[in-house]
Amino acid sequence: MALERTLSIIKPDGISRNLIGSVIERFERAGLRVVAARMRRLDRNEAERFYAVHRARPFFPSLVGYMTSGPILVQVLEGEDAVRKNRDLMGATDPARAAPGTIRREWGESIERNLVHGSDSPETAREEIGFFFGAIDVCDRTDS
Ligand code: CMP
Questions:
Q1: I need a labelling partner for 81 at 20 to 30 A (CA). Which of 34, 67, 118, 119 fits?
Q2: Nearest 10 degrees: CA dihedral of 78, 2, 84, 46?
Q3: Which of 73, 75, 93, 107 to probe ligand 1 with, by most ligand atoms within 8 A of CB?
Q4: Do 36 and 76 touch, CB atoms closer than 8 A?
Q5: How far is CA 57 from the centre of its chain?
Q6: How far is the CA of 136 from the centre of ligand 1 (A)?
């Protein structure tokens, strides 16, 4: 199984409810390592570009409003099968449908305020990591 990287975002609801440590603990317990992390407050333009694939969806304006409502924590996670592992840890987009024990089921409030984002494929992960981080920002932790 290949070593992969994926982008994780702890969204404004996770930050305002002080759940950073609780979420990262899930990643670390599953063997994922944080190799880059940064707290940001997105402006409208950045949020619209990041979620451009959803631009035509009815929930897009609300999603952009929510994602710009407070700081977010963006992280690069690294590990074996990191994309799928992160998605398994997050659970389904709608917390009400997410499996018991997943991050969204535990703390997500609604399909919009669902606490975390994770890349959906290795290709998307490369794009999303590049959106927030340069090569210099991502640390080599193969020995640490
Ligand atoms: P995320 O995994 O970050 O990808 C797109 C986001 O849009 C999703 O999490 C939710 O926060 C939001 N979203 C997806 N579907 C809906 C929906 N039907 N109604 C409201 N928000 C949604």
A1: 67
A2: 50
A3: 93
A4: yes
A5: 20
A6: 30
Catalytically annotated residues: 117
Among 49, 89, 114, 124, the mutation site with the greatest number of ligand 1 atoms within 8 A of its Cβ is 114
For the segment 96-137, what is each residue's pLDDT rounded down to a tens digit?
999 999 999 999 999 999 999 999 999 999 999 999 999 999
CB-based contact 116:32 (threshold 8 Å): no
13-59 pLDDT tens trace: 999 999 999 999 999 999 999 999 999 999 999 999 999 999 999 99
Encode 82-97: b = buried (16+ Cβ within 10 Å), e = exposed: bbbbbbebbbbeebee
Q: Whose CA is nearest to atom 15 of ligand 1?
A: 111
pTM here is: 0.97
Alpha helices in 1-144 (DSSP H): 12-16, 20-29, 44-50, 60-67, 82-90, 103-107, 122-132
Q: Residue holding tokens 């494929």?
A: 121
- In short, whether 112's Cβ falls inside 6 Å of ligand 1 is yes
Neighbour count for residue 81 (Cβ, 10 Å): 16
